[in-house]
Structure formats: C-alpha cells, structure tokens
C-alpha cells in the first residue's frame, strides 16, 4: 500500500502544498510555517489494532531500520523515503521511568518520567534529526545542491545535527551563542566534525544569522522551523502511549524553549486519535524558565497577543529563548489539548532537579523546570493527585555537570535546599566513623 506525505502551510486560509524534497521552510504564498501532512485516508485503510501490532512487532527489533523508535513508525513519518537513505542510530525507545519515590514525596501514585536523554547524543533532538538528515541524504541522491546542513543552537540541536551528519557523511555547521552553553554540549559537535561558529550573541541572534545563510540552497536549515524535525519528535507521544499498553496518560509536562517539541508532541497524539489508536487526549503543560517565558506571558492573556522578549540568563540554557520560532504551532497545540503554561524561578528549577536526583534520577536543568512546574500545579490543585502524569526529560544530566556541581557546592545566588557537599576528612578510621555516625543519625531523623 502506498502512503504519501507533503509539506503544507499551517495557515488554513492558505494551505499551500509542497513536496518534501523541496528546499523550503516557510510558505511561499503567505510566509507561514509549514507542517508535514499525511494521506490519512490511505493510513486509515489499516485499522487501529493492525497499526498497534505492526508497531509492537517492530519495537526494538533487529530489522533495519524498523528497530528504531522513529523508523518503526516509518509510514507515519516519511513513507516515501528509500531505506538506503535512512540515517539512524537506533534512536527512540527510551526508558519510561516510574518515578515512584519522587511521586510519593508529592502525593502522586502515577508519576512517570520519559528519559529522552538516554539517546546517542543525549537529548530528544535525536528523534527529529534522524528524519531531517535522512531526507537531506535522499535529496542529495536525487540531485539537490545541498553541501551542508546548518543550525543555530543552545547545545542539544548542534550535538544531534553533528552526530547524524557525521554518520551520513554530510558536513554540519552549527552557530552557538558564545559562553552560553555547557562544555559538554560544546565538545559534542567539535568531536563529530562540525564547523562550529561561536557568535557573541544569544540564541535568538544565532537564529537570525542562520535564517539568512540558509537562503542559499546549498546550506540546508535544521532548526525546528523545518517541520521535518517535528515528524521525528512526534514519536515521543506515540511511544509514551505504546509503553502504557496504548492507554493515554492524563497529563504530559514538557519544557518549552523554541517550542517545536510542543507541537511535535501534539501532532503524534492527534494522529493516534484520528486513526483510532486512542480515544482521549491528555492535557499538555509547557514549562518555561521565568527568565525566558514569552509563552507563559502570552498564556496569562489567553494567547490574545504574543510579545517576544530578550531572554535573561538562566541555568536552563537550552530553553533560554525569547522569540521562539514555533510559537504559532505551540499556541495552536495548547488550545487543542486544554493546555497550561507554567514558569519556574532559578531556585525552583534547581531544587526540583536536585530533589528528583535524590530519588534516582539525574536531571538536566530543563527537566528541573518541568518538575518544578509539576510541584506548583499540584500545590495549586490544577493537577489532581490521582491523575496519571508523565514528565518529559529532554536531555541527559551528564551534559550539565557544571550546573550540578555549582548547586551542591552552593555556588549560586540562591540557597540550595538539597545540596550534598563532600565531607573532607583526615585519613583516620575514627574520623570516618564519627562522620558516618553523624550522617546516618541525621538520615534516621529525617526518615523519622
């Protein structure tokens, strides 16, 4: 059975269509963003149970390329791409972690954390980059003039782009805000052979530059305004439902910066509903850092207006974005999913990440923003403690070791409630025994 997909303008009054092998990022007719649309009538000829069985049979299999969490759903992603052009590192299929102890601290029985950072480059961006780079490889094979793929990034996008381009043998170019990303994030594209340009600006400044240089068709744009990225990232919602035996959670909380991942999450869930795999939609909560919260400010006025802002310096550096490219798509998604937007201060996100770590997680600061949002919404009664909640963890904590070290050493401008500094002692047994006695006695008192 032949399935088809294409780019389509998100403006319903326009709805212009373009083939997926077109080098295009915005509608030529009205300048709106594009999205990938599928022939849903053709997809609906296979019933919901048959789709579930197909996805289950492929899940983590050794059958190329279907063992990938993304390409196991190829018909819903890029149905027309040739398998030999797929660039996959077997992304997706990441752990859905039952946060039992952390949930109990908050009074929640059903709290789960989707560990998207347990991936090749350490973030959810792998899900989208496998699709984008695969399509680029296909386009080059068809004669497209593309010589390199470029992105602006606060760290994770650049790492994912560099590693997938390295696997494909395509040159990557990354524009990073100088001094505003972690060392671990900087070294990833360097190690994978990217041309790294460190610009003395913020992410929004890098984005302005990359949009200009990619007007040259020899340099292809890899940021999330390119909806090919969204097609891969939409599998996270599908995968969560699959891991719950095709049951939909009540609430999904996701950190928001450039906001492509918000619309991606909604896109996958809507597709499942429209094809009969699920009957209800979860509420979507977007969590932002207080110093970079333009979506939250718009939410406060019921999305009647949106004003870009100059993002302030935040520990959640990957979402330090004041003018998100995917704002229109994100607002549309939140309206469809009874959405909520919450922001978190630097102390709130840091304490939430650290508290989660004490229960077996290893959180990046952006996951800390989402966990802080959960805590605030529970206190406000917006989320009921009986609800089934999933928090999406976007990146691995090892990419942000400075964030963690500074917290536990108290090198912050706020008190760190859960800091855990090493105890320095002389190499004597009696000193060690005394320290152990005091520490374990304190633990017994806390556990009470």
What descriptors fit this protein?
alpha/beta; 39% helix; Rossmann fold; globular; 6-stranded mixed beta sheet; 448 residues
The gist of it:
The protein has 448 residues and is α/β, with parallel strands linked by helices. Helices cover 39% and strands 14% of the residues.
Protein described:
The chain has 448 residues and is an alpha/beta fold. It is built from 16 helices and 13 strands. The chain has a domain at 96-122 and 230-408: Rossmann fold (3-Layer(aba) Sandwich), CATH 3.40.50.1100. It has helices at residues 40-43, 48-58, 100-106, 125-141, 156-168, 183-191, 203-213, 227-233, 235-243, 260-274, 294-300, 327-336, 346-357, 365-380, 401-408, 429-447, and strands at 5-9, 17-18, 34-38, 96-98, 111-115, 148-152, 171-177, 195-199, 219-221, 251-255, 283-289, 340-344, 389-393. Helix 6 links the parallel strand 7 and strand 8 (195-199). Helix 10 crosses helix 12. The termini are far apart. The model has no long low-confidence stretch (mean pLDDT 95).
């Amino acid at each position: 059975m032949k399935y088809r997909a294409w780019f389509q303008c998100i403006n319903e009054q326009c709805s212009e269509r373009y083939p997926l092998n077109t080098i295009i990022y915005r509608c030529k007719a009205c300048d709106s963003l594009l999205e990938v649309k599928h022939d849903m009538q053709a997809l609906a000829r296979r019933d919901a149970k048959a789709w579930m069985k197909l996805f289950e049979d492929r899940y983590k299999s050794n059958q190329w390329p279907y063992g990938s969490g993304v390409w196991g759903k190829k018909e819903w992603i890029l149905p027309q791409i040739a398998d030999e052009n797929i660039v996959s590192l077997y992304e997706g299929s990441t752990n859905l972690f039952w946060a039992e102890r952390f949930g109990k601290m908050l009074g929640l029985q059903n709290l789960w954390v989707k560990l998207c950072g347990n991936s090749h480059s350490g973030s959810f961006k792998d899900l989208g980059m496998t699709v984008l780079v695969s399509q680029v490889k296909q386009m080059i094979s068809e004669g497209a003039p593309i010589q390199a793929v470029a992105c602006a990034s606060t760290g994770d996008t650049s790492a994912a782009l560099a590693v997938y381009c390295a696997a494909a043998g395509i040159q990557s170019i990354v524009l990073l805000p100088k001094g505003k990303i972690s060392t671990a994030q900087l070294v990833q594209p360097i190690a994978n052979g990217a041309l790294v340009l460190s610009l003395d600006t913020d992410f929004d400044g890098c984005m302005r530059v990359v949009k200009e240089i990619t007007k040259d068709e020899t340099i292809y744009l890899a940021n999330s305004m390119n909806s090919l990225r969204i097609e891969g990232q939409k599998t996270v919602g599908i995968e969560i439902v699959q891991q719950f035996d095709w049951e939909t959670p009540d609430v999904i909380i996701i950190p928001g910066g450039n906001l492509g991942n918000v619309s991606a999450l909604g896109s996958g869930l809507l597709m499942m509903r429209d094809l009969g795999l699920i009957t209800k939609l979860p509420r979507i909560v977007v969590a932002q850092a207080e110093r970079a919260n333009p979506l939250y400010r718009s939410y406060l006025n019921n999305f009647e207006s949106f004003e870009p802002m100059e993002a302030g310096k935040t520990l959640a550096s990957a979402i330090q974005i004041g003018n998100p490219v995917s704002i229109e798509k994100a607002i549309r998604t939140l309206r469809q999913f009874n959405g909520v937007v919450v922001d978190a201060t630097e102390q709130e996100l840091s304490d939430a990440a650290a508290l989660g770590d004490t229960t077996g997680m290893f959180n990046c600061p952006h996951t800390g923003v989402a966990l802080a949002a959960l805590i605030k919404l529970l206190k406000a009664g917006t989320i009921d403690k009986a609800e089934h909640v999933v928090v999406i963890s976007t990146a691995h904590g090892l990419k942000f070791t400075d964030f963690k070290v500074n917290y536990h050493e108290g090198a912050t401008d706020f008190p760190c409630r859960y800091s855990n500094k090493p105890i320095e002692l002389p190499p004597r047994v009696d000193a060690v025994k005394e320290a152990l006695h005091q520490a374990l006695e304190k633990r017994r008192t806390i556990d009470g």
